[in-house]
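Q: Hi! First time asking for a complex rather than a single chain. Here are the components, and I think there are two in total. Is that enough to go on?
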Amino acid sequence: MDPLSTLWETFFDGDSMREALPEMLTVGLPNTLILAVSAALLGSVLGMALAVAGLSRTRWLRWPARVYTDVFRGLPAAATILLIGVGLAPLGMQVWGPNPYPLGILALSLIAAAYIGEIFRSGIQSVEAAQLEGARALGFSWGEAMRLVIVPQGVRRVLPAWVNQLIALIKDSSLVYFLGLLASQRELFRIGQDYAANTGNQSALLLAGLCYLLLTVPLTHAVNAIDRRLRRGRTVTVDPDDDGGLALAGETALPQPRTPREDPR
Amino acid sequence: MTAGTATTTSVSLAVRDVHLAFGANRVLRGVDLDVARGATACVIGPSGSGKSTLLRTVNRLIEPDAGDVLLDGRSVLRDDPDALRQRIGMVFQQFNLFPHMTVLRNITLALRRLKKLPEDEAVALARTQLALVGLAGKADSRPAHLSGGQQQRVAIARALALQPEVMLFDEATSALDPELVKGVLGVMAELSAGGMTMVVVTHEMGFARSVADTVAFMDHGVVLEAGAPEAVFETPQHPRLRRFLSQVL
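A: Yes, that's all I need. Here is the structure of the assembled complex.
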């Protein structure tokens, strides 16, 4: 057999792919989604707490948030997952038995929170101080002003970066295989790898890769679409009909030159 | 139609010897200001003279280092600042509308969350206020889709919806294109005529002259001269005020 067709069969062997496909879709895909979606939710909640703590005027909140972020952004994801998943396993055993998922999700969330916290913080910081002043002048407390006025605007501005983080999370979810998975707990990568190891043929692993792309590429395009909308959506059109014919409205609405205020991250 | 219709009860306002420093920068150096109930005081003066900072000490967006602020003769410096700010409406140079909400929601937000009004009452009140500033048809627009003048009138409606006892205007027309200024000043003049107690920081000398009951001239953190508009504009005493007027009139 010539080397080229050997190479082709190593990666694109139809039989190997067909064999792996059912398990990939019924076991691997749901498990990957469970890991990624749970970690995205928990990571975003923790990330928001970190962002607000990082912006606090009290150094006892700011300082721990800073340290946390430095540590969890600085460690390799594999190291964090092993440290949490293996280190806390005896504790986890007593709470939910020998299931590696809770700790795996916790580890992924802790990592994601460090990045998402920084994303949210930069978004919140990009909201003009005048917005806070406007809300405070109406009588809102600092907390209410943040929750109702500042945070919603800040988060909107960093949605693309946040979605990027979800993409990273989908890929990083493959690392929970370190923690030892039962057959029914395997996610996309582990199933692909098992087939590849058994057959010596990489096609199943390539199929796993395609499944990841199926999840991540649409998200990448969603990021671009959101980004475009944020850039363009702010283009201001003033409609010239105006004022409802009222006497005191002695003004004509003219389009005003206005540049997008969004921070185009 | 008057923009002040929704006004309930105005109060008198007094600022007594207010001092404020940002580090070594002494922004307010003993400011006094008296505004009778229902009266309008215009504060004029060069940029950086402390006018805007003075307004912010009245509703305690900035806490003064020393001095006192009195509403109806009672000091407000020990009140809950959030509750105090519900009694004092403020309008900013840059409008400070919330861009992620419709015009209507900009107005109902505080009514719902702070005044705890039911949704239908809040909406009805907001629509009334919008109609009073001539923007009944804009309730569902986003602020970014309005002209600057319209945005500022929404900001005024938002402040008035809370039925404040005093209104503060911080260069409310300075960010507007010249042709949009008149509509906003018109709303402010009606509010003044309707008996709202107002402090108006402005560069619009024509407005100060025709609407104000008192004009105060500030420079370097003090009120150098204050009095009836005729006195301040026709027979200014302080040389600094004379120089200022010769440059702006």
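A: The two ends of chain A are 51 Å apart (CA to CA). Let me know if you'd like any chain examined more closely.
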